[in-house]
Each structure stands twice: as structure tokens, then as C-alpha cells.
Amino acid sequence: MEHTVQITRYDAADQRLIPFFANGLTAGFPSPGADYMELAINLNDTLIKNPSSTFIGRIKGHSMKDIGIFDNSLAIIDKSLKVQDGNIVVAFVDDGFTLKQIKIERNKILLMAFNPDFEPIIIDESNEGIIWGRVTYIINQAL
Amino acid sequence: MIFGLVDCISYYCSVVQVFKPELKGKPVVVLSNNDGAIVSLTKEAKKIDGVKRGVPIFTIKDIVKQNKINVFSSNYSLFEDISLRVFHTLGCFTPEIERYSIDEAFLQFKGYEYYDIVEYAKHIVAVTIKNTGIPVSMGLAHTKTLSKVANKLSKSDPDCQGVKSLLSKDEIAVGLKDFPIEDVWGIGGRYAALLHGMGIRTASQFLKLNPEWIKKNMNITGLRMWHELQGKSCIPLEQIPPGKKGMCTSRSFGKLMTACEPISEAIANYGAVCARKLRAQHSCCKTMKVFIQTHPFRMDLPQYNASKLIVFDVPTNNTFEIVSKAQEAFSEIFKKGYHYKKAGIMVMDIIPENQVQANFFDIVDREKQSKVMNALDLINGRFGHDVVRLGSQGYGRDWKLKSDNLPPNYTTQMNDLIQIII
């Protein structure tokens, strides 16, 4: 049997939120809530499941306004996820990034807008379109 | 035990292509600091005559224009961020991994005897490409040296799906037969010349040499290489990067400098970089060297090189302290009448922050200073390098690096995110 000691480096950059007793530990009457202390909410953990494959993009335009995706919203994109019919995706078409709902038909892929003023885009050789990644969350600033 | 050497293909160019997919399949090159020479190029660029790694870009201006080569400056914040993503993705597949350089990693597979390791490697390669957008290839072998050879071979084999194995005796024999000895990992120019002089051109010819001779003429490193090339592992995985004993921040100026102030400003900036790097790795330096140089190839100009060593009373990583001492030292060595090309700062005798020996006569409130530095790092981490800076760092119009076509900080700055037009 092989006995080895593995030494790994402590990575100070990997921050964790740890409960913090703001009123200190005094000898007086303790806060009855202290026992129920939970870890603080970390939005990074919630919104980004795979940090190494997640990218963020800034949205410009109005073609998705009917499903609440607005000009200046942020899109969180996870390249590791499998893209399926109906997903919101970021695609690269005609030399630019765009964001649409993907519709996969038997012999073609369509990018659907959510705004009656916009036609669907067909991905084919002429526009050299590629699906760049699947969108997991949209962040909008409240009015 | 099996090693896998993963290498990112045309790494810097590939990073640019992730965010500019329109450049896929096009000739792209990325330049070194100061837009000097080509450091990375795509296979389409390699095909063009005169375009090679190491070529100064100004010597091939016409070729660049004629062939519509896309030229980019180096953005190391971006390259480092994507490199860490590749590295973390690889780390999901085996716990034992050594980051060998910004675009290379050794993986070690222990206890994978019941896996079809070649298939598994192909899976790793495919997932890494999908998740990060960076094309990678892997060489598999029982030693690190052979895995490097295998990786090189994978690049000239379009059918191998990015994975080449030199695991069996037969594969090794075929792989090394025509493999140039100078391309073997660890063969420097000197040994290559020695071996070429004896008529040894390939790795398999090298293996026929007598190990006694190798040990005598190429010492233990050569002997290790000889063993490694036959599949006997001598170089283990290094998972903990050795702590840095010294760090140097120096740059060539965009143009020759004669005045004192702009160089002093550059020195202030190098000092700030050193201090920031020291804090990032939680260490302090005991000594520091400041140096300036004229242009060594400008024989028509008078030459002057000088340096000064500073020893700190208490080891430090404080920007104020490092910058002010560095500028003091610079003003002592600076002489008028010369055209300066380069300046730099080297910090040495680096020790962990928590092992600093205090000085009885110290008058600096170190606790307070360290809080100031923390705040500085937090602010600059959030809003960008040197948003908060010392006045002496200036805004570097004269001495600054040339970087004409810098790829944006797509992954680290909110203002540089990819734009999605909908």
C-alpha cells in the first residue's frame, strides 16, 4: 500500500461566505436568533453553476422584448450545456453575436425573435452561423 | 501510471477567436509585449511565407497587408482568465494535474487501468473544446517526456481527434523513429548541437547511445531524458508550483527616452506592479533592484547600464514604500545625455507575509498600511488596474507599451463584455 501525503495550496481567491456574529460572543444574554444563523445568499453560486464555461454578455436591441429581455440586460451564457429545441441561445450570425430562441426542425435550425417586428433567422452556410452557448439567466435592471 | 500532456493549439489566437468567431479559419497573429514580435499564430498564418513565430512584425508589414493577416496585441488578463478556465475544466477529469505553462498542463491518470484511456482522453479533449471554446490536443504516454512527444505528433495527424498515444512499445518505436532530437523536451541548443555534431538527428538514434556516455557528456538531465524516452518515468508531476524567489517587472519603452521624469513614472508603475503581485501571493520582499539600460543595438549612441540594490529594514509589499524607494534609487543612477530603452525593478528574497521579522526601530504603522493596501486592491480589482494609483505613476503617455490592437477584457471587466445585438 502506498502512503503519500498530498500537500495542496490554499487558494485565497476562493472566497466563501461564512456566518458572522456581528454582535460578538458576549457573556450576556445571547441573541435567540443566533442558533438559526444561515450562510448568506451568494448569487454567483445560484446563477453560475459552471464558472469555467460561463460567460456574460451585454444585450443591445429589442427583438426579445415580449419575453422580458430588454436593451442593456445582461445574459449569462453557459457554453457547457447541451442546446435543445426551445432554449434561449447566443448565436454568432453574419459577423455578430445575437440572442434568440432556437427552433430545431428536421433539416434546418431557426432563430426565433419575440417581437412581431422581427422575422426568424435561418442558420445556414450563407451566414456561417454557429450556436455559441446556451443562455441560463437574464438580468434586467428594475425600472 | 499514465501522463497526458494537454496543449492549447495556437493559444493566444484561439482566445481571440472565441470572442471573434468570424476570424475562425483566417490568418491571425498575436504579438509580444510592446507589439514586438509574433508569439502566436494560427495554422492559416503559418502557411504564409515569411510569417513565423519570433519574427518582428515591422519587418513583414507588406506581407501582413497583402494577406489580410489579423494582428492583435497581447492582453494577458484575458489570456490568463481563459487559461484558468481550461485548467479548471481539465481538473474535473483527474485530480492530479500540473499547470506547466499558460497553455500547457500535465494530467496524471492513476487507477484508470480499466478505462479505455485513449477514448477517455478524446472525451476530455472534446469537453474542453466545447466548454471553453479553446481547441486542445493531448499526448498520452507513461512518461512526461514521451507525452510531450505524443502531443507534438498529434498536431500532424488530422485523424487522431486530438489524442495521440505513445503507450505501447510499438507506438513508441514508430513515434520516435523520425522525431527530431532538438524537439525533445529538455534538449537545449547546446545539446542539440553536440548531438547533431555526432550525426544524431532523431530521438530513436539518441536511444542507441550508451547511457554512460550520456551521463558523462549530458549529465543527469540527459540520462533522465534517455530513460524517459524508453518509457521509464523519472520526472514526477509537480502539483505545487515552487514559490517564486524573485520577480522582475521590466519593459522596453515604445520609443527611446532621454528625460528623467517619464522614466521615473515608468519605474513607479513597475514598482506598483511588483507590490501588487507580492500581495496577491501573500508575500513580502527583503531586497529590490532597480535598473536602467540604453539600447544595446544602437552602436551609434553612447551606452550606459546601471542598477542599484535596496535592502528594506522590514520586508514589505507596500506600494508606497516600494515605489518611493524605487524612485529614490532611480534618481541616483539616472544620468543625463543617454537614450534609454529599458528600465525595470526586480524584487528578491521573497518570504511569506506571515513570516516577516519585525524591526525594533520600525516607525511605520504596518497594520494601518496593510488596510490601505487591501482597500486599494479591492477597488482596483473591481474597477480595473490602477484606477486608484499614486500620483507618481502618472498616466504614461510617453513610456507606455505599444498595443495598437488590444483584445478587450471580455471576461474580467463589465465595460468590455461581448455585445449581443438582438
Quick structural summary:
The complex is a heterodimer of chains A (143) and B (422). Chain A has 143 residues and is mainly beta. Chain A has one helix at 43-47, and strands spanning 54-60, 74-78, 88-93, 96-104, 109-112, 121-123, 130-139.
Give a written overview of the molecule.
The complex is a heterodimer of chains A (143) and B (422). Chain A has 143 residues and is mostly beta strands. Chain A has one helix and seven strands. Chain A has one helix at residues 43-47, and strands at residues 54-60, 74-78, 88-93, 96-104, 109-112, 121-123, 130-139. A seven-stranded antiparallel beta sheet of chain A has the order 1-2-7-3-4-5-6, with no helix packed on it. The longest helix of chain A has 5 residues, at 43-47. Chain A is elongated. The N and C termini of chain A lie far apart (64 Å). Chain B is of the alpha+beta class and 422 residues long. In chain B, 38% of the residues lie in helices and 22% in strands. Chain B is built from 13 helices and 13 strands. Chain B has helices at residues 11-19, 43-46, 61-66, 76-91, 117-132, 144-155, 169-177, 189-197, 203-207, 211-229, 260-280, 319-333, 366-383; strands spanning 2-8, 28-31, 38-41, 70-72, 97-101, 104-109, 136-141, 163-166, 246-257, 283-294, 305-316, 340-352, 418-421. In chain B, the strands form three sheets. Chain B has a five-stranded mixed beta sheet. A four-stranded antiparallel beta sheet of chain B has the order 9-12-10-11. A three-stranded mixed beta sheet of chain B has the order 3-2-4. In chain B, helix 4 (76-91) runs antiparallel to helix 5 (117-132) and helix 11 (260-280) packs antiparallel against helix 12 (319-333). Chain B is globular, with a radius of gyration of 24 Å. The chains are: A mainly beta (143), B alpha+beta (422). The interface between A and B is medium-sized, with 36 and 24 residues. Strand 1 (54-60) of chain A pairs parallel with strand 13 (418-421) of chain B, so a sheet runs across the interface.
